[in-house]
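ok here's the first one, seq then C-alpha cells
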Amino acid sequence: MIDKLKAILGPANVLQGDDAAKWSHDWTGQYQFTPLAVLRPATTAEVSAVMKLAHATQTPVVPVSGNTGLAGGTIAEGALMISLDRMNALRDIRPDARIAIVEAGMILQTLQDAVEQQGMIFPLTFGAKGSAMAGGFLSTNAGGSNVLRYGNTRDLCLGLEVVLPNGDVLDIMSELHKDNSGYNLRHLMIGAEGTLGIITAAVLKLHPKPLAYGTAMVAAPSLSGALELLNRLQEATGGKVEAFEYMPRNYIAHHQRIKGGKAPFDADYDVNILVEIASASAADCTPDDSGQTPLARDLETVLEGLFNDGLVLDAVVAQSVAQRAEMWARREAAAEVILSRRPLVNNDIAVPLDRVADFLAIMEGKLQTVDPGAEDVSVAHLGDGNVHYAVWAASDDPVVHDRIMEEVEDVVLSLGGSFSAEHGIGTSKLPSMARRKNPVAIATMKAIKAALDPHNIMNPGKVLPE
C-alpha cells in the first residue's frame, strides 16, 4: 500500500516515522498517536485516488487541516492521515459577488489578509486563526467571536467540493444564495468532522470591510444584567454589535499571571465584557475635526447613558488600533490560559442567552460538591450563549472528571442547552453523545454514515458513539 501511495503522491509526500512526528499529536498535547503514514496530496484528483485505494483495502483515513481542534478529532492511530496543507490555493476572489473560492488548506488568517486587500472581510475569527485551515473550520462548523453578527461557518459557506469515502468527488460548489434542489448536502458535510468525506474546496461568503470599529472594555454590575446591556447597544447602534465577550474576574487575573500586561480597569470587577461595534458606512466612519468617528462617539454616548442607568460600572473605549489589539489579545489568549494548568476538564456548551448566568451560578455550587477545591476558568461568547466552561480539577481521578462532565450536561440540558457549541465532538465528547443525544438522532446519523461509508474508514471512532 505504501508503494502505491508513493506512486500516487510522490515519495516526498508519503511520510512515516520521524517525518510524521508533527502530525502525531493534537494541538493540546492531550492525545498522542502514530499514523500508518501522513499523506500530503496537492490536488483533489490525488485525494480521490488515495480514497479509492483506502476504500478498496478498507484502510481507515483521518483528514487533518491546521490540527487546532480541542476535542480529539484527529486521533489517527494506525490510520492514513491526509494533511490538506499543500492544497492551500486561493482560487478566486470576487468582491462584486462577495465570494472567495478556496482550497481546504487555506489558512484563515491568510484568507482574511487576502480579501482585506479587496475591501472585504471573511468575518470568522478565533484565537487559532493563524494556523486553522478552511477544511478544519468547515468540518467543525467553527464559531468564534463574530457569530453574533455574521453567524457560524454554515452561514458563511455557499458551496463545497468533497471527496467521498469511495473516492467519488461530490461537486456542490454552488455560488447561489438560493438553491432548493433537494437535500442540503453542504450543511450535512459542514460539522461532520471528516466522518462523511474530505472537504477539498469551498465557496465562502465575504462581507464589506468595516471602515471603523468602536471597541471597549465594559464592567457590568452582574452577568444577568449584561443581556440588557447587549440589547440596549443593539438598539442604539442599529444592530452593529459584532462581539460581546465575557471574561470573569479570575480569568483576568490568570491572564495577567500568564501573559502580563495591563489590567482592563484600574479596579477589579467580576463581570468584564469586550464589546465591539463596526460599520461600513461612510456616515458612521468619517472622523470629525477631533479625529473621532461618529461610530466611536455613539459608543461612548451609549455607554455613558448605560452608566447613568446603572448598567455599566466602568468602561474604557479604545482610542487607537494598538489599544483595540490589546483588548482583543486579552480575549484571544483564552486557550493558552485555560491549557496552562492540568488536570483540565474542558467544556464547550451553549444555553439560551438569558440562561448563561443561571448555568454558571448552578455549576458554582455543584462543582465544589463533586470536586472540592476545583476552579472554573471560563470565558463566553455572551452574545450567542456559548460558554467555554473549563475546570481545573483538584482531583486527578478520571472518575471525578467524568462526574464533572455529567453535572455540566445535567445543568445544560435542564436549561435547554447543548453540551457542544462549536468545538465539535471528536473523541472527547463521545460519552456525552452516548448519554445525552436523542437516540433517534444518533440512529439517523448512523444510517447516513453507513450509507456513505459502509466500511467505516472515514475518521472512525469520532462523533458517533459505539
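and now the second one, same deal
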Amino acid sequence: MVINQIDASTKFEDGVVITIDKPYKWTSFDVIRKIQSLLRYKLGYKKIKVGHAGTLDPLATGLLIVCIGKATKQIESLQAEEKEYVANVRFGATTPCFDLEKPIDAEFPFEHINADAINAVIPSFTGDIDQVPPLFSAKMVDGVRAYELAREGSDMELKPNRITINELTLLRYDAPVADFLVRCSKGTYIRSLARDLGQALDSGAHLVGLRRTASGSFRADDAYSMEKIENIFEELKQSKI
C-alpha cells in the first residue's frame, strides 16, 4: 500500500492511500469525484474504487484520507483512528446547523464569558460523553438522512452517541470567538461540541471555523493540495505518452 508516494511505477489498483488538504466549501465527495476523474481521464482507469476515511463538512478544511483500489479495504480501520481539530467557536449566537451554513437564528449575552469561565467547563466535555448529533447531518433516521428531515422543517432531536474527547484545550479567547484544540474519537461532531459549550456557559454558540489537523498518524501538514494532486496526475499522464 503506497502512502503519499506517487510516481510512474505506482499501481493504483494494488492499493494507494493519499492525504488531501480539503479546500474550503468542497464536500468530501467532491474530492473523491475529482480523484476518480483524474484516474480515469489522465491514467485510463475506467473502474477503480476510491473512498475516504472520515467525512469533513463543506465549511471545514484539512486532512482527508483518500483510499484507492485495494486500500479501500482499510477505510474502516483508518476511520476508527483518533482525530485532531482546531475549532473556532463564536459565543453569543446560534444557527440551526451549528455552523455558518445557515444564518444566525438567535442571539445571547456573552459578556460574562472569559477564558477562566471556558476553562472551568472544559472538564465536563472530556472523556467518554454522550453527544447529540446535529439534525443537519448525514445521520440515518428510519432510512432517511437527518438533513433531509431538517430541510422539511422537522425539529426532532437525534439520539445521543457515546463519544470520547481525549483533549479539549482553549488556545485563545478573543471575545466572542474561542479557538480550541480537540482530540476526539470517530463520530464526534465538533458543531455539536460548539453548541454544548455555549449552553454550558449560559449563552449560545456556533462553529465559525474548523480544520482537521490530524487523523491517527496522518497530519494535514503532509497532505497534498488539490492543485498539487492535479499536477502530479498530469505529470504521470505525460510520462506515459
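notes on #2: The chain has two domains: 2-80+218-240, 83-215. The longest helix spans residues 28-43.
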